[in-house]
Amino acid sequence: MSRTPQGQRAGLDKSPPEVAAMFDGVAARYDLTNTVLSFGQDRSWRRATRAALGLLPGERVLDVGAGTGVSTQELARSGAYAVGADLSQGMLHAGKRVRPEVPLLAGDALRLPFADASFDAVTISFALRNVNDPDAALRELARVTRPGGRLVVCEFSTPVNPAFRTVYLSYLMRSLPAVARTVSSNPDAYVYLAESIRAWPDQAALAARVGAAGWGRVAWRNLTGGVVALHRAVRT
Ligand SMILES: C[S@@+](CC[C@H](N)C(=O)[O-])C[C@H]1O[C@@H](n2cnc3c(N)ncnc32)[C@H](O)[C@@H]1O
């Protein structure tokens, strides 16, 4: 764990207690910081995630790494029953304060507190990158999904246009931590954010890992030129 006078950030080994403590530190202003740093794009990314899941009223969908429940709340707009799980008590408490209607519970992506095949769909937004064993998390997501059920992973990815990629990486490594210093309750977490995005597999590499974890018909769609990618798959 790296500590500074402002706060703390996890290392790229992503030890679960460090990741949880880091998110506890950002929880108070998480939703606002997200919207500022993404220039408001986060809302359209969440809408696209809901659409990609193809949820039907009455279906059960699990949102892993739900944080403050901002992603879970969007899923519920489909009429499905959406429940969120997260490792960070701070994020869950912040979520329960601002979204008391969203069901949120404590749960680790690597040991979900649900029976086999209990969901029609599962999703994980901006959280798989923070799990210390993403392949095990993808297998655990498959375990709680019924055969034929759907997965959507919404995660930062690799912009496809080389010129845009250069500008984006410069924003990520220089401007984003500076802007976070003015908005976030734990600006150092946004240094981790930039580093962890840079170290994350690109679209094709993540698709291969999803396919190796018990999921079929893997495909992806780029959002905002590949700043974010939605990987979707079906439980085999
Ligand atoms: C960037 S936030 C994303 C929150 C929300 N899904 C969104 O779209 O804004 C990442 C979340 O993943 C959670 N997380 C990290 N590792 C986890 C794990 N192993 N199990 C469950 N949640 C985890 C963190 O506590 C944090 O709340």
What class would the helix/strand composition place it in?
A: alpha/beta
- Name the bound molecules: S-adenosylmethionine
Stretches where pLDDT is under 50 for at least 5 consecutive residues are none
- Distance N to C terminus: 38 Å
Order of helices and strands: EEHHHEHEHEEHEHHHEE
The percentage helix is 40-55%
* Strand order in the largest sheet: 5-4-3-6-7-9-8
What's the rounded overall pLDDT mean?
94
Note the beta-strand portion: 15-25%
The beta-strand count equals: 9
Radius of gyration: 17 Å
Number of helices: 9
Main β-sheet, in a few words?
7 strands, mixed
Question: Shape from CA axes?
Answer: globular
Defining traits:
23% strand, binds S-adenosylmethionine, seven-stranded mixed beta sheet, 236 residues, single chain, alpha/beta, globular, two-stranded antiparallel ribbon
Question: Layout of helices and strands, plus pairs?
Answer:
Layout lengths: L1 E2 L4 E2 L6 H11 L3 H8 L3 H13 L6 E5 L5 H7 L4 E6 L2 H10 L5 E3 L12 E7 L8 H10 L1 E12 L5 H22 L5 H10 L4 H9 L3 E9 L4 E8 L1
Parallel strand pairs: 3-4, 3-6, 4-5, 6-7
Antiparallel strand pairs: 1-2, 7-9, 8-9
Helix pairs in contact: 2-7, 7-8
Bound molecules: S-adenosylmethionine (SAM).
Write a compact overview of the structure shown.
The protein has 236 residues and is α/β, with parallel strands linked by helices.
